[in-house]
Amino acid sequence: MAKVQSSNLGYPRLGEKREWKKALENYWNHKISEEQLLSETKELRLRALKKQQDKGIELIPVGDFSFYDHILDTSITFGIVPKRFNYETGKVDLDTYFEVARGNDGAVASEMTKWFNTNYHYIVPELVDAKPQLTENRALFYYEEAKKELGIDGKPVLVGPITYLKLAKGNDDFKGLLDQLVPLYGQILKELQDAGAKWVQIDEPYLATSFDKEELALFEGVYASFKNVAPDLKIELQTYFESLDYFEEVVKLPVDAIGVDFVHDHGESIEALEKFGFPEDKILAAGVIDGRNVWRADLDAKLGLLERIVKIVPKDRLIVQPSSSLLHVPVTKASEPDLDGVLLGGLSFADEKLVELVALTKALNGEDVTAEFVDAKEALAAINGSHHRNNAEVQEAIRNLENVEVKRDLPFAERIKLQHEWLQLPLLPTTTIGSFPQSPEVRKKRSDWLKKVITDAEYEKFIETETERWIRIQEDLDLDVLVHGEFERTDMVEYFGQKLDGFQATKFGWVQSYGSRAVRPPLVYGDVAFTEAITVKESVYAQSLTDRPVKGMLTAPVTIINWSFVRDDVPDYVVANQVGLALRKEVEALEEAGIRVIQVDEPALREGLPLKHSRWQKYLDDAVYSFKLTTTSVKNDTQIHTHMCYAEFEDIIDTISALDADVISIETSRSHGEIIETFEKVGYDKEIGLGVYDIHSPRVPTTGEIQENIRRALKVIDARQFWVNPDCGLKTRKEKETVEALRDMVNATKEIREAYKVTK
Fold first, then answer.
1. What is the DSSP string of 171-236?
2. C-alpha torsion angle, residues 354, 355, 358, 362 (rounded to 10)
3. Which residues bind 5-methyltetrahydropteroyltri-L-glutamate (predicted)?
4. Per-residue pLDDT reduced to its tens digit, 158-212
């Protein structure tokens, strides 16, 4: 009988309790040896594989593990290491690997940016002077390890060469580099075939973006070459995160299986399949379980979709899988026994998604899975029918949005004069982005408080003491606009999720953001409502300690929803507007309490752009609206700041201006000042802070490096517009390096102020 198979595309690296993160950081801090690191991570890796095996997944990915990032792994595999790290040839040692990602005393880290439209960051390959060579066959190592240790005949996972090069910088000779890489990939595939591997998964998510149709010829040539060198190895060409603009052509590429996202495709994949059909010599790997969100699947609806698919693709040529790697979701909801039962029933983390995949596969194969389907149906009915998703007041407010004014009273050119009058800041004012180091002591006090080891009063006193200490540090450094440090906050999104109705924090819902940095995205499971002031107490206390202005600090709607797991029963823009209405009340409360500089951060706006250009404008218009819904009710002399993280901003500079924030801070250091090129081309009429040093690296920048970044910016940005700040919050840094770096920043700024006075 024809049989459908189940497959997975990737599994979370972190471990259920962040064991991976702890091992890495212990190694970086010289608490464990390299041998111990390798041992601990191997145990985690094998545990994840065994779990997939035990749950009944038939095609289990191997080689999806990483010590930092899978794009960095690809670079290292081919010896693509920037010259400043003094690499010559051969296998790249682990310390050099980490230095590329994190920098060292003599070399800045490689740029880091978002993986398509997710909150995962990858290390951008630097291809200038690159001479690719195969340094090690990682895929083969992990394939043989799984086979030897667990008897798993796994499916090695590789990042495809075209996607890899498209995500790199310095690839002026794209075709030449591709021609160099293809034989090296071919060697990897040939060695896998010789070792007995039956399948290999090659990820080419670039295929789900907007690109010129002529580029398909590149894929045709590359994958024909791969089939020629390893004819007995089945290649699954994997796409995800969107539908395929050229579905008819992509499914004809010379591979054995095509992986298609049937979740984040706006319904276009099934329409294309029914319109164009599917080749009789290929397997369709249908991504029907959401790999990026945590809500339980409607198994009846998913089965209905699969039944439409099998009318075109026979069962023996169908694989059921997630829409993408499960890297983007937490490990298991079994770690959350304290959650409300209705909410818990509606959740599905990585382990639960494996169960859903197997249930759908069994259903298609005629096995009885009635119990699983009934349980899913009842759980979804319970959460959708709960009062959390039926808040009449919130829903009425959304219906009446047309009556809400979303425009400042005065244009920027007029209100900035009022702000300058009271702020009385020097040329090139200095500030930070918001957070200060979350030291071991801060984390210990929070843990003790949560465990009720210390009282509320004791915890609040500690937060006040730490806030005052850092206010004094900022004054001593002579920063111009201060922040309270956010010592009460675990995370810039999670914190607000703990304070607004409709959100739920988790205990172990960790996902990887970059390197060892893990975040716990809150669950937006119901209608969002403001209940009480969130940040006013801490902001007012900090302002009472100093005569210098202290910024109130909020996270904006689009970032909150992009960095949360958002309910999937209503459109995202509806949730963003609910958040905007709630935060509007918080902004008004801050202003009423005397906080006159308010930063509303939108670091995730650019990363959330749809992969298809045709969907950009709707997304950007919705983002601007929810931001202005949050910020525009303030007085003209209240200064609104915002902040954005690593991204290519040229495409959205008009949107940035449309936000109508008085001051925006943008990262420039890790991308080596490349954002400044945007302002060379288009200009900007509001005030702007360009991050002048990289906070994601432990190295302390020199005054000269910071001055170089400032001077380059001043070539295209008027000094009267320009603020000086680090490129992001400082919570992940240690105190000593933070103070030293900020001192260098302030000193560099003062020297340039003096020089500016002379030259002007």
1. -TTHHHHHHHHHHHHHHHHHHHHHTT--EEEEE-GGGGS---GGGHHHHHHHHHHHHHH-TTSEEE
2. -170
3. 18-21, 114, 119, 563, 607
4. 999 999 999 999 878 999 999 999 999 999 999 999 999 999 999 999 999 999 9
> Could you give the residue numbers annotated as active site?
696
What's the CA gap between 344 and 333, in Å, rounded?
7
Greatest distance between any 2 Cα atoms in the chain? 85
Q: Does the pLDDT at position 669 exceed 70?
A: no
59-73 pLDDT per residue, tens = 999 999 999 999 999
* Annotated binding-site positions for L-homocysteine: 433-435, 486, 601
Residue 409: per-residue pLDDT: 96
- Helices assigned H by DSSP within 284-384: 299-310, 341-345, 350-364, 370-384
Q: Which two tokens stand for residue 556?
A: 């904006």
pLDDT digits (tens, 9 = 90+) for 433-466: 989 999 999 999 999 998 999 999 999 999 999 9
Binding annotation: 18-21, 114, 119, 433-435, 486, 563, 601, 607, 643, 645, 667, 728
Annotation: binding site for 5-methyltetrahydropteroyltri-L-glutamate: 18-21, 114, 119, 563, 607
Which is nearest to 492 in space by CA: 590, 563, 441, 575? Answer: 563
Cβ–Cβ under 8 Å, residues 67 and 123: no
pLDDT at 760: 44
